[in-house]
Design goal:
single chain; 360 residues; alpha+beta; six-stranded mixed sheet; five-stranded antiparallel sheet; 8 helices; binds adenosine-5'-triphosphate; cell membrane; membrane
Length: 360
């Protein structure tokens, strides 16, 4: 069931100043009930503007926003029952944790007893029991974001919007907060729309997401679907795939600089475009350890680092640097500067012909 639907959305900033003009244009965006939905894209592509439009904090030039099949354009932000959490915590500095969380309930004239019960429950959910009397300046960055989360959750919003809420936290705390928000998503059965430019966060959290560029949606799908089939090189790079070669396919061989890559499986021929090689579809082998010389290059290891059971390589092949990820094997040791073979799996190659490249 669709929770939120945006149709023909248009918003322009700086109409009278061509130098700073920005257009947000979205034909259609559907977010399903209980989705953990991501809005992903580079700086200035319109992620926050889109969130503010959903929340009613920014006026639209044109378009329709529907929540539960009802048009909500004319409904005031405070009546939309949407919670919002920003990068900065925006807590009231003169109120303690209990007062900060209870503020919205007090405005809604909820009784004292009920407030106390609701705050008790939400403090339990966000892991802040015992912190009721602390003031924001007595809390760590992660704890402040937990209070922000509690303050939004206590009002039982139908939709929770989060704008890069963990980007100011250090990596360990960020990981902790990601686990917490996944737990909350399940516990509260809610729809969450979350903005980030961190692709690790996207893989960790989202069921579905959009990738935006210059005010447009470039691709829509689950993180896995988008990683497997990036629509263009912008999306591929955003998904962390940096092995991209430009060249021509002639007689089922892709030729780029001095590299020839077999594309036997491909139906395309006599075309120019970009070949995307996913890092896990390349494998580094010992130079003397390969009998089958099919789909193989020679290269030199420039970097290799161990990461939780995997090795990340950077290998120079004919002056082009390739990123390779492979499972760590304890009986094989690789060194920087070592001459190696790199075997590619044709299944992991994606060719995007020039005319197929969707420019945006
Ligand atoms: N109130 C405003 N008036 C004029 N221009 C604005 C306004 N708010 C945002 N912009 C411009 O609109 C564009 C999109 O801004 P937005 O904040 O939505 O991007 P973003 O993707 O969230 O960026 P970031 O990741 O850096 O936060 C930017 O070029 C920004 O300068």
């Amino acid at each position: 069931m669709t929770k939120l639907c945006l149709k023909n959305i248009k918003k322009t900033y700086g109409k009278h100043d061509k130098r700073s003009e920005f257009d947000l244009n979205i034909d259609e965006l559907k977010i399903e009930y209980r989705d953990f939905f991501g809005i992903v894209g580079g700086s200035g592509c319109g992620k926050t503007t889109l969130l503010k439009i959903i929340a009613g904090l920014t006026d639209l030039d044109y378009g329709e926003i529907c929540m539960d099949q009802k048009i909500i354009n004319q409904i005031l932000p405070q009546r939309r029952n949407i919670g919002m959490i920003f990068q900065e915590n925006l807590l009231f500095p003169h109120m303690n944790v209990y007062e900060n969380i209870g503020f919205g309930l007090k405005i809604k004239k909820v009784g004292k007893k009920e407030i106390s019960k609701l705050i008790d429950d939400v403090l339990q959910s966000v892991g802040l029991k015992g912190f009721e009397k602390r003031y924001p300046n007595e809390l760590s960055g992660g704890q402040k974001q937990r209070v922000s989360l509690a303050r939004a959750l206590v009002l039982k919003p139908e939709l929770l919007l989060m704008d890069e809420p963990f980007s100011a936290l250090d990596p360990r705390l960020r990981e902790e907060m990601r686990s917490l928000i996944l737990k909350i998503h399940k516990e509260y059965n809610m729809t969450i729309v979350f903005v980030t430019h961190d692709i690790e966060e996207a893989f960790n959290l989202f069921n579905n997401m959009i990738i935006m560029k210059e005010g447009r949606i470039v691709q829509n799908g689950s993180p896995m679907q988008i990683y497997e089939n990036p629509i263009n090189t912008y999306v591929a790079k955003f998904m962390g795939i940096n092995n991209i070669l430009y060249g021509n396919i002639i007689n089922k061989i892709f030729i780029s600089n001095d590299l020839n890559i077999n594309l036997d499986r491909f139906t395309e021929d006599n075309l120019s475009g970009n070949l995307i090689l996913k890092p896990e579809c390349l494998k580094v082998l010992k130079f003397d350890n390969c009998c089958e010389h099919i789909n193989i290059f020679e290269g030199i290891i420039k970097e290799c680092s161990f990461r939780k059971g995997f090795i990340d390589f950077k290998v120079d092949i004919n002056s082009t640097e390739f990123e390779i990820i492979q499972v760590y094997e304890s009986d094989i040791e690789f060194k920087v500067g070592e001459r190696v073979l790199v075997k590619y799996d044709e299944k992991g190659l994606i060719f995007i012909a020039d005319e197929g490249e969707i420019q945006c």
